[in-house]
Design a protein that fits this description.
With 307 residues, the protein is of the alpha/beta class. It has helices at 10-14, 24-34, 59-65, 81-89, 103-110, 114-128, 153-166, 182-195, 212-221, 249-258, 267-274, 277-281, 289-292, and strands at 5-8, 41-46, 73-78, 94-100, 134-140, 170-175, 201-205, 226-229. Strand 7, helix 9 (212-221) and strand 8 form a beta-alpha-beta unit. Helix 4 packs parallel to helix 6. The longest helix has 15 residues, at 114-128. The structure holds coenzyme A (COA) and zinc ion. Zinc ion is lined by residues 13, 174, 176, 204, 206, 235, 237, 246. Zinc ion (ZN) is lined by residues 13, 174, 176, 204, 206, 235, 237, 246.
């Protein structure tokens, strides 16, 4: 059975929407702690406009300060050529281009329609040539848009095709505001896996309507082995109304571990890092397993009551 590849997005998708700026040193400590838990990759930050995403305005400092570990790819979100140049200057392993599948979310989030993003991506792919940096692209609102509603599957497939023609090497299908359901996810995943069997597809779910894990399971059953997830279920796009946290990494890892699916992640180590989040972000997280314990947790029987 193929080992899953978990991409931890809490330092980016998680921290971008927090009410308080997390100090740079604390971000670095979080990423360093996550880097020794067996995760395949960590999305460390984003090289976006500091006006658009003030919480991640310390992107260069973070990437330069973190300890690098063989086998853990450092990836960063990039919306335009300027972001790409900043990322390359810091020596990242991967860049994750971001665009929307829907016009409205593209305009709200990036001030670009999908067509405009694609034009810019051509220059970005050219800029990365020869750098050895892996180029992934994330397609926001692939399963529905909070402004427009349904995003037709054919539109998503057409955009994937255009991205691959441009030279993008991997594609992440994102359910930005938790609108996807498992039947829809299964259909789209089966289609992309069949049509582009050599392309690494990643699925990115938000648990906004409680369907995150069910969607991940449906994607896995359709042949997907790469997942974005966020420690403690932190996360959300500040430019998507109603956005809430990603599918929670430790809950996802726990589910697959219980099913006998190898994620490469040391769940106890991951839970220990998750337990530090409330202090870091100043509030409880939505993680379930960190509170309930793993399903092999046992309790002593209550003391016998004499009658
Ligand atoms: N890094 C740093 N600064 C950047 C930048 C980048 N990648 N891209 C643009 N800027 C700066 C420009 O220098 C300019 O600064 P100024 O006002 O001081 O002159 C300002 O941002 C606006 O630049 P412009 O090219 O007009 O961009 P824009 O205002 O159309 O914004 C984006 C476009 C993509 C840069 C911006 O919308 C963005 O960063 N969005 C990120 C959204 C995001 O990450 N959402 C959550 C993840 S899904
Ligand atoms: Zn997201």
């Amino acid at each position: 059975m193929t080992r899953l590849q978990i991409n931890e997005v809490a330092p980016r998708d998680g921290l971008q929407i927090e009410a308080e700026f997390v100090p740079t040193a604390a971000k670095v400590a979080l990423i360093d702690a996550l880097s020794v838990t067996g995760l395949a990759r960590i999305e460390a930050t984003s090289f976006t406009s500091p006006k658009a995403i003030p919480n991640l305005s310390d992107a260069e400092e973070v990437v330069r300060a973190i300890k690098r570990h063989p086998g853990v790819a450092v990836t960063v979100l990039v919306p335009n050529l300027r972001g790409c140049e900043r990322a390359l200057a810091c020596g990242v392993d991967e860049i994750n281009l971001v665009m929307s599948a829907s016009d409205s979310h593209g305009l709200a989030n990036l001030r670009m329609r999908p067509e405009q993003s694609l034009v810019r991506f051509a220059d970005i792919v050219a800029a990365t040539r020869g750098s050895g940096v892996f180029v992934n692209a994330s397609l926001s609102t692939s399963f529905g848009c909070p402004f427009e509603g349904e995003v037709p599957e054919l539109r998503v497939l057409g955009l994937v095709e255009r991205l691959l023609e441009l030279g993008v090497e991997g594609v992440t299908l994102c359910d930005t505001t938790g609108m996807a359901n498992p039947a829809q996810v299964g259909r789209l995943c089966e289609t992309v896996v069949k049509r582009w069997p050599e392309t690494p597809f990643t699925l990115h779910f938000h648990n906004t309507r409680g369907m995150g894990l069910a969607n991940a399971l449906a994607a896995w059953q359709a042949g997907i082995v790469r997942f974005d997830a966020s420690l403690g279920g932190l996360g959300g796009c500040p430019y998507a109304p109603g956005a809430t946290g990603n599918v929670c990494t430790e809950d996802l890892v726990h589910m697959f571990a219980q099913m006998g699916v190898d994620t490469g992640v040391d769940l106890d180590a991951l839970l220990a890092v998750s337990a530090t989040l409330p202090q870091l972000v100043g509030h409880e997280t939505s993680g379930q397993v960190v509170k309930a314990g793993k399903s092999d947790r046992r309790y002593p029987m209550p003391a016998r009551q004499e009658t």
